[in-house]
């Protein structure tokens, strides 16, 4: 039996991990240098005005630089981009090494091969426990050729082979 007051970390992760999500990489240019991190907690938020949200760990070393720029891009990873998801969650490495990207209209890194890209500007940060809920206004949107998504479920990537690109 799970009790709201006595929820431990393992139980929280085990139960909440049943909510399957896509995987994104949140990127920006921090004082001239590309920066980014893997982010699962991306969501569409509002249509009018167009807003999205991401939840960022307060201990993130990358977020302060992204915050400073005030803008970021979200690249929605495709099946087969697990290595990119892994790379942007690793510390002590050049996360952009070997990763191709192109600039969004405002110059934010859009990662090649992703399913879709959203460029946005930070509009609000809401304090929430050990995370910050970041609300951002959408400034540009783009979808690539429809393919399978990279999925994260119960603490791991779901393995499946990407299908051939299909036309919509
Ligand atoms: C699949 C996956 C999803 C993640 N989702 C988030 C997230 O939603 N928010 C977050 O702050 N960190 C998330 N992380 C962790 C960050 O990618 C990781 O903490 C970060 O890269 C650590 O480096 P940093 O200190 O530069 O942020 C996720 C990691 C993985 C592998």
Automatic annotation (TrEMBL):
Pfam families: Flavin_Reduct (PF01613)
GO molecular function list: FMN binding; riboflavin reductase (NADPH) activity
Domain named Flavin reductase like: residues: 16-159
Transmembrane segments: none
SMART domains xref list: Flavin_Reduct
PANTHER family the record matches: FLAVIN REDUCTASE (PTHR30466), FLAVIN-DEPENDENT MONOOXYGENASE, REDUCTASE SUBUNIT HSAB (PTHR30466:SF11)
Protein family (similarity comment): Belongs to the non-flavoprotein flavin reductase family.
Listed name of the protein: Flavin reductase family protein
Organism encoding this protein: Streptomyces tagetis
Highest classification ranks of the organism: Bacteria, Bacillati, Actinomycetota, Actinomycetes, Kitasatosporales
